[in-house]
Design brief:
The protein has about 230 residues and is mainly alpha-helical. Helices cover about 60% and strands about 0% of the residues. The protein is built from 11 helices and no strands. The longest helix has 19 residues. About 20% of the residues are buried.
Length: about 230
Amino acid sequence: MPRRPPTEPRTAAPDRLSRARIVADAVALADRDGLDAVSMRKLATGLGVDPMSIYNHVRDKGDLLDGMADAVVAAIEPVAPAETGWQAELSTLILSARREMLRHPWSASVLGSRSQPGPATLTHVDRVLGILRGGGLSLELAHHALHVLGSRILGFDESLFDDTAPADVDPALVAAQARAWAPTLPHVAELALAANHDGVLGACDDDGEFRFALDLILDGLERHRGRV
């Protein structure tokens, strides 16, 4: 009987390339180096594949960003019903979303730029609506609530302006600017002085401001529950 040729030692098969793997690597790259660092070529290098093979799973950069945005939302932890009421339950869910957004500083700008929500984002919106409806809000008021809450349901908000002065700004310069504003913009000048790091308001606390606005919105919705 002829002898079989010796078999070649088996090597581990490379991980199969998939959309989920590409998106996960893109999220990690954006977390590490910023959103501008994300490119098909860099992803391909990190994955050890030809750049063109990525296009078998992701149509283009926009499709990749859609996937990245939805992956972040998918990681938001759902919450159990709160015994203290719908406001506490919704607040907990939104603050859970905020923690996820803060883990990925680039995510708010990407989510704000997407024209269509992905599956995970729609699931999150459905959770929000479920809490609102379960709390006794009519469908009409729940619809109003989504518009009022806006991006806050995803844990971020687009503020009109940022009044947080950089840490290295000389308080004397802030005071000089406030004096220049005082004759024509007395209230802006008053706020600028008070919001100065050495002033009575102190530095802005983004999380504190977010919670304050969220509480105001939820309290207002509670007052309108049963009326609309």
